[in-house]
Amino acid sequence: MDTQKFIDLFAEALDIEASDLTVETEFRTLPEWDSMAYLSIIAMLDEEYEIQIENAEFKTLKTLNDIINYIEEHQ
């Protein structure tokens, strides 16, 4: 999986600069993180990676790397 592409897509979904993110970024601590951001990320995961993730599972993810690992495990 292309990690930089994922970071770029994540940043685009939240309308922030990709350069502000790393795989260790705890996305819930971002000032832009809210319910709309959550929905944007869920939509991006479905559209780009054909991944559907339940809210309960998503709550266990903390960093961008956690999301990347989830994608890799479920593709």
Brief descriptors of the model:
75 residues; mainly alpha; Non-ribosomal Peptide Synthetase Peptidyl Carrier Protein, Chain A; 4 helices; 0% strand; globular
| CATH class label | Mainly Alpha
Number of strands: 0
Annotated CATH architecture? Orthogonal Bundle
> Uncertain runs with pLDDT below 50, 5 residues or more?
none
Walk me through the structure.
- The structure is a single chain.
- The protein is mostly helical.
- The protein has one domain (3-74): Non-ribosomal Peptide Synthetase Peptidyl Carrier Protein, Chain A (Orthogonal Bundle), CATH 1.10.1200.
- Helices cover 56% and strands 0% of the residues.
- The protein has four helices and no strands.
- The model has no long low-confidence stretch (mean pLDDT 97).
What is the gist of this entry?
The protein is mainly alpha-helical and 75 residues long. The chain has four helices and no strands.
Secondary-structure map:
Blueprint: H1 3-14, H2 35-49, H3 55-58, H4 64-74
